[in-house]
């Protein structure tokens, strides 16, 4: 398992393979849960934290925040996980055990890449609306906007990754999708 | 380069250093540009949140699969353990508790005792109850035989009648009634069929998986009687 993980590159992950996404989740799960156990959260909370840590890690990879792995994937997951565990403890109003080693939070900054986004901000009202109506768009629009805004693809990247044949076609398709999204939000606001 | 181009390069991570300077300046000075940027940036966050939800759903499915695998693994383990216990109990029961397969032992050794007391010959017109009883017994019509044996008993029967009645009960697999009759024969010790009764009592004990009782009867038979000595010894060895 370990050797498989060592061979996984950022580029492999960026291919977006569901199989690899699942494999990494399963390969690091027990190790993470074992590590999280010492913080006295429930098993369900630990699973939740592991999933969120994994999503943050994955999002950062897909958004190009990590150029290359400087540590093992589990180290990334542990360092993100520590933040999330601390957050969870605060939300649960759990008194922090006097033995709780706060240095792990400081240590965090050393482990996680400075460009790492932890997604700990709640969505604004506008963002909630955008998210809601983005979900109502057709699959093609969702794919195009996701490639552009989430993956940070250039128009050329999009042409390579999809069936679009020219920059103009991509640009006009994107404009139509943005217009539709705006219209749906505005129509709803006028209701 | 238009403002739209600047935004495009920003979101596709392809701003040059020069473009970045212009980009930052515009954010500070151009409210319309800033609003356009913030709108697209909000869309970026919304899409990311949407993607995260999709990923979370996938992970929750993985988790369900893992739990289901574990449950199955547990079930298989449980079944394996249960099967082991069954095997162990079977082995234990066969070798230690029951000593052997009693049902087989009983079947192998049980033969209805032949009618050696009443001769039925063709043309015999002796229509006595005893004859009818033994005709029924020999034709394995055991219920009728028991009725007839009972009727014979009322008229002051031979002392072998209870033994054959017990045999008829054994033929009906009514070991309880047979047991009562045979014990009585042994206790009274007046019949010519005491040894035979002990043999059948041993067989009944085997059928009832009462190893100790069966061994007592067999030892009694071997020590005190000549009837079925060899068979009794073999049976005793099998029970040991």
TrEMBL record, chain A:
The keyword rRNA-binding is annotated on this UniProt entry: no
This protein's UniProt keywords: Sigma factor, Transcription, Transcription regulation
GO biological process, alphabetically ordered: DNA-templated transcription initiation
GO molecular function annotation: sigma factor activity
Keyword Hydrolase attributed: no
Family: Belongs to the sigma-70 factor family. ECF subfamily.
Protein name as it appears in the record: RNA polymerase sigma-70 factor, ECF subfamily
Originating organism: Bizionia echini
UniProtKB/TrEMBL annotation, chain B:
Signal peptide interval: none
Top-level taxon of the source organism: Bacteria
InterPro entries: TPR-like_helical_dom_sf (IPR011990), TPR_rpt (IPR019734)
Transmembrane annotation, as ranges: 76-94
Keywords, ordered alphabetically: Membrane, Transmembrane, Transmembrane helix
Designated name of the protein: Tetratricopeptide repeat-containing protein
Organism: Bizionia echini
């Amino acid at each position: 398992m370990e050797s498989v993980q060592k061979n996984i590159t950022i580029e492999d992950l960026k291919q977006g393979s569901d199989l690899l996404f699942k494999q990494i989740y399963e390969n690091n799960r027990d190790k993470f849960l074992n590590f999280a156990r010492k913080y006295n959260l429930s098993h369900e909370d630990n699973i939740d934290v592991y999933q969120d840590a994994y999503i943050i890690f994955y999002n950062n990879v897909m958004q190009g925040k990590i150029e290359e792995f400087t540590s093992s994937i589990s180290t990334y997951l542990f360092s993100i996980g520590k933040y999330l565990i601390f957050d969870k403890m605060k939300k649960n109003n759990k008194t922090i055990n006097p033995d709780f080693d706060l240095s792990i939070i400081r240590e965090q900054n050393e482990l996680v890449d400075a460009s790492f986004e932890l997604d700990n901000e709640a969505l604004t009202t506008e963002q909630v609306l955008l998210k809601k109506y983005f979900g109502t768009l057709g699959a093609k629009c969702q794919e195009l906007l996701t490639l552009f805004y989430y993956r940070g693809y250039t128009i050329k990247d999009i042409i390579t990754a999809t069936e679009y044949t020219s920059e103009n076609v991509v640009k006009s398709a994107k404009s139509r999708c943005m217009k539709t999204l705006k219209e749906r939000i505005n129509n709803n606001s006028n209701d | 380069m238009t403002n739209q181009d600047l935004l495009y390069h920003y979101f596709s991570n392809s701003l040059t250093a020069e473009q970045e300077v212009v980009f930052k300046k515009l954010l500070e000075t151009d409210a319309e540009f800033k609003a356009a940027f913030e709108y697209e940036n909000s869309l970026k966050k919304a899409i990311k949140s949407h993607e995260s939800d999709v990923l979370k759903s996938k992970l929750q499915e993985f988790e369900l699969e893992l739990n289901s695998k574990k449950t199955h693994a547990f079930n298989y383990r449980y079944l394996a353990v249960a099967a082991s216990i069954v095997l162990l109990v079977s082995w234990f029961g066969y070798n230690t508790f029951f000593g052997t397969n009693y049902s087989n032992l009983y079947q192998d050794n049980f033969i209805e005792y032949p009618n050696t007391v009443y001769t039925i010959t063709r043309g015999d017109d002796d229509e006595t109850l005893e004859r009818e009883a033994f005709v029924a017994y020999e034709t394995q019509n055991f219920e009728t035989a028991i009725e007839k044996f009972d009727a014979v008993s009322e008229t002051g029967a031979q002392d072998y009648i209870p033994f054959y009645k017990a045999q008829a009960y054994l033929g009906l697999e009514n070991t309880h009634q047979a047991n009562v009759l045979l014990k009585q024969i042994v206790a009274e010790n007046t019949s010519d069929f005491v040894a035979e009764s002990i043999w059948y009592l041993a067989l009944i004990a085997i059928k009832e998986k009462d190893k100790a009782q069966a061994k007592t009867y067999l030892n009694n038979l071997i020590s005190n009687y000549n009837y079925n000595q060899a068979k009794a010894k073999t049976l005793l060895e099998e029970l040991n």
